[in-house]
Amino acid sequence: MIRKEILENQALKAHALFWDDPHRDLTRENGTYYDLPKGVEVLENGDVNFAYHAPDAKCVQVTGTGGSFPEKLIDMEKGDDGWWRVTVSGLESAFHFVNFYVDGTRALNPYMPYGYGFGRVMNFFELPDKYSDFYLFHDDIPHGSVRMNYFYSETVGDWRTCWVYTPPAYAQDKEKRYPVFYLQHGGGEAESCWIWQGKINNIMDNLIADGQCEEMIVVLNCGYVYRKDGVIGSNPVASPVEDLIVNDCVPFIDKKYRTIADRHHRAVSGFSMGGGQTMNTVIKYPEVFANAGVLSAPGIRSDREDKLGLLSDPVKFNSNFDLFFVNAGAYEPAGPRLKEQTREMRKKGFKIVYFESPGYHEWAPWRYGVAEFVKRLFKK
After folding, report:
1. Mean of the pLDDT values across residues 75-79?
2. Taking all residues of the chain, what is their mean pLDDT, rounded to a whole number?
3. pTM here?
């Protein structure tokens, strides 16, 4: 059973379009509002009710995207009110993207939360587990702030945005300076996904309130670097995101925010594509970052030239990194490969922390992974 207080937590319902659900219709007779049916409802026994409004449709189906919600079309049943409904049982606890098909055409459900994934707008819902408190919203603790910042990137030749989390005490103590954690998203995602889907601001608030991690600034950058002049190719993993982070964003953040501007007080991490970009960043710019978190990446490797030989010399590797952390979901393809590679490198003397979290290649293990990473960051 899922605890009612978890199911009713506002963090599970909020998304990029709104915090409080405004789905209500106006009664023309007396001008009052009434609740519309919910596009998705998670029950305490773990069943999930889906509803889709399509009075003229002949067929409506719902499906997951693989992993903990299999990519298999499930037929919905039409009611007299024009709403199609179905109850799905047996889904695993996780963050779930959802596809709907109306008469064979993929369509969004306007009565469900919206997110960004697979390179497009997607519906999603949360099926939390009993350990979900660490990323939920708690009203009895101090909360940090999230700001969107503009900065000019010479790497791209245009203006960019980054989202910045500052801890609750940042606005109070005007003299205190903070370490900085640069956190990248995965392929098909965007920089704001770590807020709306990853819940990184809630994770940081909760861990700081519990005394489980140091206070820090968190910076979220877009992981795609495409120049207007066409110099950079279309491969986002191969594009020089590390140049944008180090040459454009780090100086901007150090100037605008009260940071501790040295490599020992900087960390970079990311999942999937962002994990590969993390490796490229710390290999190309070892003088900038002393902490790295590789989440669900293809491996502990880099597409950049390893000038210092960090990945071949455990002595240099250990002296360069204060913390090198690797994470993967227990059931994702990268898991066994990363675990074996970590084991082999440890045997050779490389100091690497490996953490396996539950789940597939999706948000659930990345939340667990980033939480474990920040618990270890910037410890004296």
Report:
1. 97
2. 92
3. 0.94
Cβ proximity of 117 and 74 under 8 Å: no
d(CA 370, CA 275): 12
337 has pLDDT over 60: yes
Residue 290 and residue 248: Cα distance in Å, rounded? 19
Q: What's the number of CA atoms in the CB half-sphere (13 Å) around residue 198?
A: 26
Signed CA dihedral, 103, 106, 109, 110: sign only: negative
Calpha distance 184→68 (Å, rounded):
23
Q: Which residues is 120 bridged to in the sheet?
A: 117
207-231 pLDDT tens trace? 999 999 999 999 999 999 876 666 5
Neighbours of 197 (CB within 10 A): 26
Tell me the percentage of the chain whose pLDDT exceeds 70: 95
Neighbour-count burial of 200, counting CB atoms closer than 10 A to its CB (0-12 exposed, 13-18 middle, 19+ buried): buried
Give CA–CA dist 138/140, Å, rounded: 6
Question: What token pair was written down for 79?
Answer: 């009611």
Using alpha carbons only, what angle is made at residue 338 by residues 284 and 359, rounded to the nearest 5 degrees? 120
Note the pLDDT of residue 358: 85
Q: How many alpha carbons fall within 13 Å on the CB side of residue 238?
A: 5
pLDDT in tens, 170-206: 999 899 999 999 999 999 999 999 999 999 999 999 9
Name the residue among 258, 264, 267 with its Cα closest to residue 170. Answer: 258
- Of the candidates 300, 302, 305, 308, the residue with the CA atom closest to the CA atom of residue 324: 300
Reply yes or no on whether the pLDDT at 37 is more than 60. Answer: yes
Residue 132: pLDDT band with limits 50, 70, 90: confident
